[in-house]
Amino acid sequence: VIPMFKPQGLSNMMRAFASMRRKPGPRLLRALLQSATASAASFTPHDTSILLGALASLALPPDPPLHHALAESLENQAGQANAQDVANALWAYATLRLPLSPGLSSALDRRATDIAASFSPQDLSQALWAAASLDTPPSRVLFGRLKKRALEVAPLLKPREVANIRWSLATMHIAAGPRLGAAL
User: pTM for this one?
Assistant: First the structure.
């Protein structure tokens, strides 16, 4: 039955397990991940970020073939990712302590730069936390745009998001500056 699932079905099934905080049984998990590996090239950035997020939530790092397939798919389609896809993928990579290839890191940085104005407070907090955790600071251009976005959404930030942003900046040795420092 599993090989018949489309990428969205695979990622949503894993998200359902993550929502229940339960890992699938070994046979089902193996079938799901093998199917995901085989079909990763047809995953959308959203499917990829959902699957990676579910794996991170369940503390299930992908095996090397799945990791490579998902990273390649995400790198090739990063231009179609929305802010939540970028933030979730980065969060999953950081949570699972997976290395970002230079190509994927560059593709996500470019995409995030293009869509920084659409980052929600949570996306912003997640992306900066992940960048600090992965020890991959954003490019100067991206940071400038994220800083501008942080100033715009500062009144909407929850205490945890403020804490994540402050921790991220401190960890990356990036000064918030007077305006952002006061806003946070």
Answer: 0.92
User: Cα–Cα distances in Å, from 145 out to 111, 117, 155?
Assistant: 12, 7, 17
Length of the chain: 184
Structure tokens at 82: 């929305």
As a whole number of angstroms, the distance between CA 182 and CA 184 comes to 5
Q: Which of 94, 93, 95, 142 is closest to 119 using CA atoms?
A: 142
Please state the φ and ψ torsions of residue 25, each to the nearest 5 degrees. -60, 160
Which contacts qualify for 104-111: CB closer than 8 Å, 24 or more apart?
104/71, 104/74, 104/75, 104/78, 105/136, 107/74, 107/75, 107/78, 107/79, 108/74, 108/78, 108/81, 109/138, 109/139, 109/142, 110/78, 110/79, 111/78, 111/79, 111/81, 111/86
Percent of the chain with pLDDT over 90: 86
- Distance (Å) of CA 180 to CA 25, 62, 149, 150: 47, 37, 10, 7
Give pLDDT, residue 1.
55
CA–CA distance, 16 with 178 (Å, rounded to integer): 43
